[in-house]
Design goal:
Blueprint lengths: L1 E6 L13 H9 L7 H20 L4 H11 L21 H14 L6 E2 L3 E2 L5 H11 L3 H21 L10 H16 L3 H13 L15 H21 L15 H4 L7 E6 L24 H10 L9 E8 L1 H7 L15 H5 L2 H11 L10 H4 L2 H7 L2 E5 L1 H7 L11 E7 L4 E6 L14 H12 L5 H12 L33
Parallel strand pairs: 5-6
Antiparallel strand pairs: 1-4, 2-3, 5-7, 7-8
Family: Belongs to the PrpD family.
Protein name: MmgE/PrpD family protein
Organism: Cryomorpha ignava
Amino acid sequence: MKNHIVKVYPSKANLPKEEQLAWKLAKMVTDNVAISDEVEDMVINRIIDNASVAIASVNRTPVVNARAQALSHKRDDRGANVFGMPKDFKVHAEWAAWANCTAVRELDYHDTFLAADYSHPGDSIPAVIAVAQQMGKSGKDVLRGIVAAYEVHVNLVKAISLHKHKIDHVAHLCPAQAAGVCALLGLDTETTYQAIQQALHVSISTRQSRKGEISSWKAYVPGHGAKLAIEAVDRAMRGEKSPSPIYEGEDSVIAWVLDGPDAEYTIPLPEPGEEKRAILETYTKEHSAEYQSQALIDLAARMRKKIKDFSDIDNILIETSHHTHYVIGTGSNDPQKFDPHATRETLDHSIMYIFAVALEDGTWHHEKSYAPSRAQRPETVELWKKISTVEKDRWTKLYHDEDPDKKAFGGKIIITMKNGDKIEDELERANAHPAGARPFKRPNYIGKFDMLTENLITKDERNRFIDFAERLTQLSATEMMGLTVEMPFDSVKENKPNHKGIF
């Protein structure tokens, strides 16, 4: 890996494009190096992971509405699949990506990478697959596109904090999605450079979408990015240019949206000829909750065995990282994080709620744990309000450790009983983390798929999809139209275009 210094330059400097971050990203994306079996295996895992959470959420309101919009953009010739729909039903690629990204993100239950900023790198996968289906690309092409998208996304997240400036993380996602589509299509460096710049320029939005009462827009964000990215690539392919230099310019994103004209970032990127392995630094979720809560859910299941009566608890303190404390903890100062009537999205971003339920139940479920009746249970509300968080340097340092084998997102729990006794325990990494007690492997991904799709798809469809996913690099362009999961038609809500909106 080589570190690249990125900073703002005045317009009169006329910074050569070869020295611009967007060009360096494009050069890396278009460097068609060999992909190892280990990386290919993880790409397949994440395709299976995405499909599992997409099918589990297929009839949830945001997904139903996103799909309804997509179905109004049907194509009879070239097109792309929509999760849940028949494989021979095709829509425009950008609308398939819109619907499928929304389905993948709705439960917030897929892969993650945390560093200077937050990310769900798997959000690029539906965009790459949709364009591949419409453009007649093979499974090998899809592999190349997904690997490139992860490489761009992970390395931007390592170096540039968006949340510090209250900017939503789609500003890293959209350029990664554009990069993945460019790699899939085998576009040249100049075209890729223009697409990445334009994708960033059009994708800046605020973090209000993740503050206070969190709305369903959180589920739509990656689909919004995918549409913007696909359209940016299309324009670049037609020869259109983009605002440049988008990162380093005098009036650029860095200068006016992020750290300002005196900012300096260090971006790590693979050297020419070096394999792209960033996907191996990412991790999926065993539990359907914000990633910083994964280890604490595991810890709750362990600690509950030492408590006979939860009503005897006086208070619970969670010592954790800066991000966990200020984003999903009491450092956020969001009263909604203690509201029994809050949205699922808000509860997902309340470590106080999550730990209370996990401590009482000893488990976590993607639907039952968020049910209104569960959140409003009086004894749970009482326990929930006894929980607070605090930032500790140790956990913040582990969160930002550059060594993926040392990086950790856990915490220490101190439960103080009414009689003054204390129960303490800590866990650095979730059990399913690559460096955890029982890292997720292929059987775990398939097990998660089976758990989430049970009674939603037929056994034959389950077997067919798993077979297709595991044969990714052997899939022809024709077979790529089968890299989706079809549900019994009548079980899919809004399975035909409707006229509730404009489309």
